[in-house]
Amino acid sequence: MLVITDSSTLIHLAAIDRLDLLRTFFKQATVPPAVWREVVEQGGGRAGAAEVVRAHEAGWIELAKPTDVALLRLLKRDLDEGEAEAIALSLEKEVALLLVDESDAREIADLYDLPKTGTIGLLIRAKKEGLIRLLRPELDKLRRQGGFWIAESLYNRALEAVGE
User: What does each C-alpha distance from 60 to 50, 63, 85, 97, 119 come to in angstroms?
Assistant: First the structure.
């Protein structure tokens, strides 16, 4: 199962010590070079940087570069470089799942019919599969420690989805 992730999912899961969910769910995740640069090179010292390097060294996060230059140029008109590369790579590789949080990127992924989820979706799955006991504390930690903005309506829908 090919899973490609954008920066936000890596950063936010690492911020709440849940990056391991990617390995548990998918065994391996792929990141494009722009995501690597954003998380590891530009993000040194912030959540995700060291964790992603360790995951890469352990072999469960791999790098892959998109090659469709025209598609990248088009996507970069509306998205940041990491989101554009993640979507382009997802289209080139026939991804099984794209991990992306930003609403603009999610809308464009929808235009291309890419299967997607994000940090909250992964936490909901973790709760349903018994990997976390309660979703509410994880969402609260995501807000406090991860600086993740969650609309109140989405927060409540996520809790309802798992019966909390």
Answer: 14, 10, 19, 16, 18
To 10 degrees, what angle do helices 119-128 and 135-144 make?
150
CA angle 1, 143, 43 (to 5 degrees): 65
Asked if 13 and 119 touch (Cβ cutoff 8 Å), the reply is: yes
pTM above 0.85, yes or no: yes
- Condensed to tens digits (0 to 9), the pLDDT of residues 64-105 reads 999 999 999 999 999 999 999 999 999 998 888 999 999 999
Rounded-to-integer distance, Cα 40 and Cα 48, Å: 7
How far apart are the C-alpha atoms of 97 and 94, rounded to whole Å? 9
pLDDT the model gives residue 55: 94
The full DSSP string for 121-140 is: HHHHHHHHTTSSS-HHHHHH
Neighbour-count burial of 129, counting CB atoms closer than 10 A to its CB (0-12 exposed, 13-18 middle, 19+ buried): exposed
